[in-house]
Write a structure and sequence with these properties.
The protein has 16 helices and 2 strands. It is mainly α. It has a two-stranded parallel ribbon. α4 packs across α10, α12 crosses α15 and α14 runs antiparallel to α15. The longest helix is centred in the first third of the chain and has 35 residues.
């Protein structure tokens, strides 16, 4: 019996995503443990919705087809433009050293993920190319890399590599959303990092709170206009880069972030910006991120996880432990053992398991509980959204060749 499929339109999908956020906020208020461990509202509500759609699918009641890619792309890029606008000169100067350190850490973790997947998978009798699809391809790379490298692995002899990669990416998305918040909270509380915290530009929590009082409708209009202009500039830079550097993959969201950085420089140079305007831009960015994450989670196909065999489940559980200990004991310490380092480690656990959107969601949840870290929100998306894409692609290609040689 063929299952009935219901087409859900773009605005209907968006409405469901908003309702999922409201449901998550409601549950965060009713269940203290959810808020205590910094699990985002979009993740809570979105996961419940995706579980319901999964049950309806596996019981052959009904399937849903969501039209969400346009909205997803829009809100994702607006968020990155807002992250760029947060990058003051003081932040750029302080972040330079951390960018280098974090780039190396991201590459090392990606290599370890592939080594673990290949070693454990082959020891349990899996095809090496298929086992590798539970490494940095779906985890650090997310669904995008799963769709890109899965077919390559299949063409090299890894039958079923695409399905394994997509299922592992879905596992990573859920796991990354669940462990990032509790891990960040533990680092902050254990090391008492939230006391007397000052950001990269020297502002304290009290100063940020006083700025929020000056947010107005006029600044809200300006914030939205600036972000849309930054996204337009970002797409223009993206098209220029494709012409000048056709062999280099520069994601459009990174170019939108660059557009936001340029917008911030212009505002600071012409004295047109102020703390309240930048705070308003941050608020618009947070809204965009929440909607993006909710859209991503409500459209997940959780039934793909049911197809995971025991060897693959074993690999993914070990990957989860690797991420946790690497971010807790290596990323946190290498990045300075301070509050910003704790938020960066939280972000690293996010894109190490489920790509950059997970990083942003978990970092936001932790920062909403404690303090905002401009430095972390500059460093993590820059590495996770751009530099790590380049290094990870090189690492994956190297391991694919190793796996093929093992056949």
């Amino acid at each position: 019996m063929e299952i009935t499929t219901i087409e859900i339109g773009m605005f209907q999908t968006l409405a469901i995503a908003i309702l999922a956020i409201y449901l998550g906020e409601f549950l965060r208020k009713k269940i203290p443990a959810i808020k205590k461990y910094c699990i985002p509202a979009a993740v809570v509500g979105g996961t419940i919705f995706s579980i319901v759609t999964c049950i309806l699918y596996v019981t052959n009641v009904v399937a849903f087809s969501f039209d969400y890619s346009t909205m997803n792309t829009f809100f994702y890029n607006v968020f990155f433009a807002a992250s760029g606008c947060a990058a003051s000169m003081a932040l750029l100067k302080k972040g330079g050293k951390l960018v280098v350190i974090f780039s190396v850490l991201a590459a090392v973790l990606a290599a370890l993920q592939n080594a673990l997947a290949l070693g454990v998978g082959t020891a349990m009798g899996m095809n090496p190319l298929v086992a590798l699809m539970a490494g940095s391809t779906p985890l650090t790379g997310g669904h995008g890399n799963a769709a890109s490298f899965g077919p390559i692995a299949e063409s090299m002899g890894g039958t079923g590599a695409v399905e394994v990669a997509v299922a592992a990416a879905t596992f990573g998305l859920i796991a990354g959303c669940m462990i990032g918040g509790p891990m960040g909270r533990r680092l902050i509380r254990k090391n008492q990092l939230d006391k007397n915290y000052k950001g990269a530009d020297g502002e304290s929590l009290e100063e940020v709170s006083s700025v929020k009082a000056f947010v107005s409708s006029e600044r809200a209009f300006k914030a939205i206009y600036i972000l849309l202009l930054a996204c337009g500039l970002g797409q223009t830079l993206f098209k220029i880069a494709k012409i000048l550097l056709p062999s280099v993959n520069l994601p459009i969201h990174v170019m939108c972030m660059l557009g936001g950085i340029i917008a911030r420089m212009i505002l600071d140079g012409t004295k047109k910006g102020d703390d309240a305007l930048y705070e308003t831009i941050d608020i618009v960015g947070e809204i965009s991120l929440a909607i993006f994450v909710s859209l991503s989670i409500i459209t997940m196909k959780l039934w793909q996880l049911a197809e995971l065999a025991l060897p693959l489940i074993t690999i993914l559980v070990l990957q989860l432990l690797l991420i946790y200990f690497f971010c807790t004991f290596i990323t946190y310490r290498a990045c300075g053992k301070n509050y910003d380092a704790a938020i960066i480690a939280t972000g690293h656990s996010g894109f190490g398991l489920g790509a950059v959107p997970v990083s942003m969601a978990t970092m936001t949840a932790v920062c909403n509980e404690y303090h905002y870290s401009k430095l972390a929100f500059f460093v993590v998306p820059l590495i996770g959204g751009f530099i790590s894409n380049l290094t990870n692609a090189t690492i994956i290609t190297t391991f694919l060749n190793i796996a093929q040689g093992m056949l």
